[in-house]
Amino acid sequence: MRDIGTRVEPFVDEWLIDRLDGAELRLAHPVRREVVMEFDQPWEGNTSYYPVMFRDGDRFRMYYRGSHTIHGGAKADYERPEEMICFAESGDGIRWERPELGLVEYRQSRDNNIIMPAALAGDTFSVIDDQRPGVAPEERYKAGTGTMDYGFFAFVSADGLRWQRVEPDPLLPDPQGYDWVQTLLWDGTRNRYAAYLRGWERVGGGEVKNLKLTPARRRIRHVRLTTSQDFTHWTDPELIELDVPLSHEEQFYTNCIQPHPRAPHLLVGTPKRYMPTRQANFDQPETGLSDAGLIVSRDGSRFKRWPDAFLRPGRDKKNWVQRNNGPAIGMLQLSDDEISLYWMEHYHQDEPSRLRRGTVRLDGFASVFAGAGGGELLTHPLSFSGSELVINYATSAYGAVQVEIQDDAGQAIEGFRLDQCTPFYGDEIEHVVNWEGGASIERLAGEQVRLRFALRDADLYSLRSR
Prior knowledge:
Helices cover 1% and strands 44% of the residues. By secondary structure, the protein is an all-beta fold. Strands 2, 3, 4, 29, 30, 32, 33 and 34 form an eight-stranded antiparallel beta sheet that branches. It is globular, with a radius of gyration of 24 Å.
């Protein structure tokens, strides 16, 4: 039995679904919005990347790498001594400002938003506002990062601008020659810190033990997980499990795994999916195309992977170039009914790279959908704690939704039959389901029941009781 209590349960996986008849679990796609930042300052450029974004009180913070290559060329052309970790902030998540921090001198001036050279911080500086209960004020902000041939290391800060290394030596040394693209988070549901690191799987299965001794054709970019209770001692990293395997032709370059905005017991990732041998824009000589996928986990180790792209490159030719379309770490709720996501564009060009915003409906990464011919969803047995059933749904003007509550034997409970639920239609984030006679679900709280949904030209995004 699934006990959902009063929490939001989005339909992003099959956990609640026992049977679908004429309906399907369908992936959604973000709606492209405006470009929110062009990395056009002298210390930024065409390979600026790896944004990390989160709400901090009534403001939003962003950390990113400022860097440039000569003529938008290959990785070997990085102006590496000038790679910088930078900071920006925003009041609305759309208009971003570069505060003049005065912390780092760049070309004889401190009038910049640089917080640290990447030579000291690594170039994938993943920052969190630590929500662990009892965290010390001087360690409120934490960052995880890493350097190839050196390992994983961590920083703490009281203000998120001035940082101190946790330990002088790597917390996880690198004997494998890995690079260290990772996402850091405080996983409050499982009461632990988690870092999702770049990993490598062997073609045919098993983890690559030494990257430099394994030919590129025999290895697949993957994701590893390490956890910690104290931010100093970390478990040995292990590859996460994916229900749909990766291959040499389809790899995860990054992972961007974060708690679901309204259902933090779920972890949602928007990994950059990298196709190393593909080339579409022949103005750029290098191969390697990317889009973004969607992965979801309920334990932090095993993930459902949607095989279709969550984010496509689109019609802009400059996004059909290697290592583009890289999602940022951060899902920001800027309004009551949608989540803002961000991703990089125009990487490796003769112009600065840029950051674009997109939106998905609240809880709208995926949905149970039925067309005009109608369809049904039957849940597994579940229990709840509230007195109202609340659903997030949308229909066409022709569409409709009805709900039935059944007992554990699959029989409709009197007062909650399908024909006692007046068909409803519209587009609501929080709709309270009603039955004829005003029957209340409060008397069913704690009991084992099933929910039957009849859908016509409708999407069902999430449910909860309250």
